Amino acid sequence: MTQQLTIRRPDDWHVHLRDGAVLQGVLPHTARQFARAIVMPNLSPPMTDCAGVAAYRQRIEAALPAGMDFTPLMTLYLTDATDPDEVARGFAEGVFVAAKLYPAHATTGSAHGVTDVANIRAVLERMAAIGMPLLVHGEVTDAHVDIFDREAVFIERTLAPLVRELPELKVVFEHVTTEEAVRFVEGSGPNVAATITPQHLHINRNAMLVGGIRPHMFCLPVAKREKHRLALRAAATSGSAKFFLGTDSAPHAVGAKESACGCAGIFNAPFALESYVAVFEEEGALDRFEAFASLNGPAFYGLPVNEAKVTLEKVAVAVPDQIDANGTQIVPFHAGESLSWRFAG
Ligand code: NCD
Ligand code: ZN
């Protein structure tokens, strides 16, 4: 008999759905697998106020194919000028469930990000007081810091002091990529958690650079050395409630990736669960997959778990070389590979 794994329907706690025609093309891939997703606000221009976020949510709902059951969980993009009252109002009214801190110029769509966390101190104090989670892109942007060290340096310079000074603030350290980040999250109190992407569980930096430069393996934070990948795999499959699924699926048109200055971001939404479950099987931790994918995230955000169930079955699935996202060609993660588990719905 085919091996099967049935779990509560998962959620994706970090996704880039984009906007316009591409939104329509990529959204069904996320909505097929996930009941809810935390939608990143790094559009151009970014979603920096209640009205903008509410309008973006409506565009997502309008782009959702009929019959698909999916709830976007919206986020606010923090800038140096964010008004604490706007944050509290949007959270109270359910316009957004969290706010995202992008250090200015850290990644795609972060040009309007925060130049110094001291500038948003009043916002963070208000968020701590109302129990609103802060989602952090954890990299310094200092030109003197090597790109492979930017996450570890961010912990020292910014995140550790922040968590020490505002212990009541709920913080999700997004898409962690290093052993240092895993240790930091493990060593912090229950208000600090982290998301982990499929790519950082599967690849190290060699995947990007050995045998030629492979732009489709490039995302931010950039994949690190093998020891970091192993630390992430151990954390994800440990059973700790502090780690949960966040794909960071970040679609870019093939031409924007295969370029002299290629964009950062990996489009993993079409085979996200298949990709994650392979890691849990390899680590002998299939019994812990449901906690990572479906239980730990809602517990941290204070949301109910999903009642519906989904099944994965041990049947090979071929990942196409490219996916047509409503007219935009995008190369998915695992392009051209065969994965050993199939999402059966
Ligand atoms: C993301 C994007 O393209 O929006 N890119 C990425 O490499 N992850 C931005 C981000 O989450 O850093
Ligand atoms: Zn992201």
The spatial strand order of the largest sheet comes to 2-3-4-5-6-7-8-9
Number of strands: 15
Instruction: Give the N-terminus to C-terminus distance in angstroms.
Output: 18 Å
**Bound compounds:** N-carbamoyl-L-aspartate, zinc ion
- Helix content percent band: 25-40%
Mean pLDDT: 98
Return the string of H and E elements: EEHEHEHEHEHEHEHHHEHHHEEEEEE
- The rough form would be described as globular
Question: Brief description of this entry?
Answer:
The protein is of the alpha/beta class. The chain has 12 helices and 15 strands. The protein has helices at 20-33, 50-63, 84-92, 121-130, 150-165, 179-187, 198-202, 206-209, 226-236, 254-257, 272-282, 289-301; strands spanning 4-8, 12-15, 36-39, 71-77, 98-101, 134-136, 171-173, 192-196, 243-245, 309-313, 317-318, 323-325, 328-330, 338-339, 342-343.
Task: Explain the overall architecture.
- With 345 residues, the chain is α/β, with parallel strands linked by helices.
- The protein contains twelve helices and 15 strands.
- It has helices at residues 20-33, 50-63, 84-92, 121-130, 150-165, 179-187, 198-202, 206-209, 226-236, 254-257, 272-282, 289-301; strands at residues 4-8, 12-15, 36-39, 71-77, 98-101, 134-136, 171-173, 192-196, 243-245, 309-313, 317-318, 323-325, 328-330, 338-339, 342-343.
- It binds N-carbamoyl-L-aspartate (NCD) and zinc ion (ZN).
- Residues 14, 16, 40, 248, 250 line the site of zinc ion (ZN).
